[in-house]
Fold this protein.
Amino acid sequence: MATEKEKKLVLARLATMPLDMALSLGSMGSFDRERLIIEVENESDVGKLVIEVYMNYLRSFKQRVR
Amino acid sequence: MTIFLITLPEHDDITDYCSKWSGEILKIAEQLGHDTKKLKGSEANRKNFEGRIITHKPHFVMLNGHGDSKSVNGHADEIILSCDEFVHNEELSKDRILYIRACGCGSELGPACIKAGCKAFVGYKKDFAIIKSKSKVSRPLDDKCAEPFLEVSNQIPIAILKGTTVGEAVGKADMKLEKEIQRLMTHDTFLALHLIPWLLWNQKVRIVLGDNAATI
């Protein structure tokens, strides 16, 4: 379960995503910036996955820096 | 001579991307003198797939397509390999190395193939992600966003075709991933913000089953 802080952090990241970019997730479909933001705001299955993936990256980035 | 069978469905954006980017794999297979059997577009159906396996008995099979935990699809999402049919599955996967670039197949289909006698299985236990440029969908090979996703995953079949073990092939993909991360972080930090999380996701959900030391 994502915290509100994590959700806000991921939404801030998604706001910087170029409009031309889209995420393809196999049979789940294709998601551009606007759709990803909606999915995260609604905490749908895709939204939860997006939060998990971005937060994993931020944690691994912190480890890399260390 | 090594026989290599690959499916190249291209009925939607993602299958088209995976198939077009497989060109690099085909080129290397042909340079190395492997007997390459391609099932392209609508040829990537169940009847042709079974026929090629039974007739040519390939040592290495790579499937591009959509999938789920139990099956992998070919053209127009026709199921071409499923874990619900053990005897059928045994005939199709026994003594072969399988690399499946499709979503979810690693969780149930992978173990079923190993049970059926597959030497080694490489796949993804959850969704395989690709970031693409919407403006490049008609020219997937020009898509710089998608490039690292396809190039990293291509390292696995390329290394297997070059004769490395499955374990080493996966290691080559990890090395390529590390290089891509470094390149993105130093040359395009803006792109890095959105590509690296999903490149790491694909690595996280990738699964290797069976004999790590298997070769073609």
Summary: Chain B has a mean pLDDT of 95.
